[in-house]
Structures are given as C-alpha cells and as structure tokens.
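Example 5.3 — Arsenate reductase ArsC
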Amino acid sequence: MNVLFLCTGNSCRSLISEAVFNHLAPAGWHAISAGSHPTGRLNARALALLADKGIPTDGYYSKSWDDLPVTPDIVVTVCDSAAGETCPAYLGQVLRTHWGVEDPSHVSGTDDEIGAAFEQAYAILRARIEAFLALPPEQLAGDRAAFKTALDRIGSLLP
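Solution (predicted structure tokens):
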C-alpha cells in the first residue's frame, strides 16, 4: 500500500508524516510526501525534530505531486490549502482523507513556543498514523466506504 501525504509546500507537516509513517509501517506499506506548490527545501526544524525522535529522513526532499515515483492508494492532506485543491487527474479515484494540522513553521514567538508548536504537530500526526496502522486492512480492503469513514474519523484525533 502506498500513502501520499500531501501539503502545499511539502516542507514540514507532509515530511513529518512521511517519515513517521515509514518508520512505523509494516513491510509492504510505504509513504511518500509531496506538495501542490513545493518550496524545494525541507524545514530545518522538522528535520531536527525527526532526528531527535530517532526517525531517519535520508533521501527525503521537497517534491511536486507531479513527480511522484508511484501512484498512491490513499492521499492524506495535512493542510487546509491542499485539502481544497483538486488532485491531479492521473491519481484517478484514489481514496482521499483530510487530517488538517496547524503549520508549526508559521508560528512566531519564543524558541520554546515554536518548539512546542512543532512537538504538537508531531504528536497529532503520530497519533493519527498509529491509529491508521492499527486499522484492520483485510477487513477494510473490501469496503472502500468503511475505509474512508475510518480514515476520516482518524483525522479528528488529538493526542
């Protein structure tokens, strides 16, 4: 199963999601991330946070949804801007869900306040990914509507 975590800039939330998913996922499951308007660079604080958590990011880079190496089975938007955009036609009838998370890279304040915003975004995304990976895929695989409902419900989870 291939999961695409989609955000506008593909520098922070989608990167965190990709890295955490790939760190936790069973064999045969893989995440990629992309942006509708990628920044072309990864957020340094997001990379530092993942390194602090022991989650590798080697080989990750900010990329466009036009340059995906595989067609995803599921698209998870993690920002409100990307959720409102129309996915490229080549994605077909991919299963979509929205897991909106505030962008910690837009937080201003003290270093501690900004750090707390990154920790919060990480905690939310990790909790949602753990819930996703706990779903019984063999039961949901045959019922697309039930799978979408379960994914949508996960999008409201907070740690």
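Remark. Residues 111-134 form the longest helix (24 residues).
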